[in-house]
Request: fold
Amino acid sequence: MSINQSICKSDLDQHNLTPRKYYGQVFTTDESVIEKLIDTINSIYKPGTKIVEIGGGLGYITEKLIEEFDDVDCIEFDDELFEVLNKKFGMKKINLIQGDVLEYEPPDQDYLFVGNIPFHISGRLYRKFMSEVDHKPYGMVFITDKQYATTLMGQPPRCYRVSLQAQSYGDIEIISDVSPTSVYPEPKVMSCIMKITQNDLVLPKNFWEVVNYHFENFPTKEVESPKTVGLRGWINLCRDVQP
Reply:
């Protein structure tokens, strides 16, 4: 496979497609970035894992996933891109799914989320699969907006609710930067490869009740500014207020 921004544009033109800004559609066009993504997945991969790619796009990452792993689900929301993927990979060993990842039912086995994820679904994606579902992925490896990744890693005095959600789920690491020239269309912001590995932290039962109360009612007697309290600080506060 040989790809770059020009080839990506040509592929889109061939299929009479235009990236949809509403869906945040961008395509990774740097082979070295894709290889780094695969290496990062392998760094936490366990035998028997299902790889779940979010947004197959034109199949640039998908092709490498199929070469490297035996069990791959590829979820694509856009019906036109799904047809491209189906023509390209329909006869290969992959489970192509047309639909919304937020409606994806986790498999019975261990699974990893991977891919180039659009920013507009990030918050809902993390909320569902880090907090709401019973069977969570044991890791996530994404190409994503670097500023958002930094927010997930946020510490006091800039520790937000989404930071607490991500850190209570797993250990977060920015593996490498992804420059705008590695993506088509070129974004105005820097992206990165981010790895999140699930940890074994068990939150107090009243954790989110306490956190939400103080974020929505600050300043309170206990917390003047919620963003200045880190994960361990919230856990200790929850224990202090338990009956």
In short: Residues 48 and 110 are 7 Å apart (CA to CA). The beta strands are 27-28, 50-54, 72-76, 95-98, 111-116, 139-145, 170-178, 183-184, 191-198.
